[in-house]
């Protein structure tokens, strides 16, 4: 049974266009979000992130796809867990369905509100560990995104 959902929100003092580009431009996402990225910003397009680009089959979202997109409003994509969570999130016979991420953007008078919804987690203890891991990881990613958009050094550089 799939029950857990993560939801994180952050206000970024940055223009909506800059925030959108950070999520959809592979050169930008390949800095704050991971060490490399392959993103085709269209429905069905790749949304692949590589934390170790030299070994793309490991610690990556290889094979993940954009499931919904409305420029400057939202982006949704499938998600694979890291190698350390592989037995829970990525492996099995058959493997579990991928989890799903939706990023919602809302312009404000002082920047852009970002809401991340990560769904599709199971409800046993191992999945609980995956939820906790992703909660920490998403917080680190949002801190990196905020730093990138402010022109500061990333608190968690991937390279």
Describe the structure in your own words.
The protein is of the alpha+beta class. The chain has one domain (2-150): START domain (Alpha-D-Glucose-1,6-Bisphosphate, Chain A, domain 4). Helices cover 29% and strands 33% of the residues. The protein has helices at residues 16-24, 26-32, 86-89, 125-150, and strands at 2-12, 36-39, 47-50, 66-70, 74-79, 99-108, 111-122. The strands form two sheets. The chain has a five-stranded antiparallel β-sheet, covered by helices on one side. The model has no long low-confidence stretch (mean pLDDT 94).
What is the approximate shape?
Answer: globular
SSE ordering: EHHEEEEHEEH
Overall radius of gyration: 15 Å
What is the CATH C-level name? Alpha Beta
The low-pLDDT segments are none
CATH topology: Alpha-D-Glucose-1,6-Bisphosphate, Chain A, domain 4
Helix content: 25-40%
**Main pleated-sheet profile:** 5 strands, antiparallel
Query: What structural class do helix, strand and pairing data support?
Result: alpha+beta
Q: Residue-averaged pLDDT, rounded?
A: 94
The share of residues in extended strands comes to: 25-35%
Number of domains: 1
């Amino acid at each position: 049974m799939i029950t857990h959902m993560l939801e994180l929100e952050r206000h970024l003092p940055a223009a909506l266009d800059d925030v959108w580009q950070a999520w959809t431009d592979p050169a930008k996402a390949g800095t704050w979000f991971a060490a490399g990225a392959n993103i085709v910003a269209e429905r069905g397009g790749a949304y692949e992130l590589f934390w170790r680009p030299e070994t793309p089959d490991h610690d990556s979202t290889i094979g993940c796809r954009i499931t919904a997109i409305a420029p400057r409003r939202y982006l949704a994509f499938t998600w694979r867990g890291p190698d350390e969570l592989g037995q829970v999130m990525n492996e099995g016979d058959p493997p579990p369905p991928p989890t799903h991420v939706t990023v919602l953007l809302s312009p404000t008078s002082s920047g852009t509100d970002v809401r991340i919804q990560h769904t599709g987690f199971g409800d046993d203890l191992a999945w609980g560990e995956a939820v906790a891991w992703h909660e920490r990881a998403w917080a680190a990613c949002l801190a990196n995104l905020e730093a990138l958009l402010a022109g500061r050094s990333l608190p968690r550089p991937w390279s």
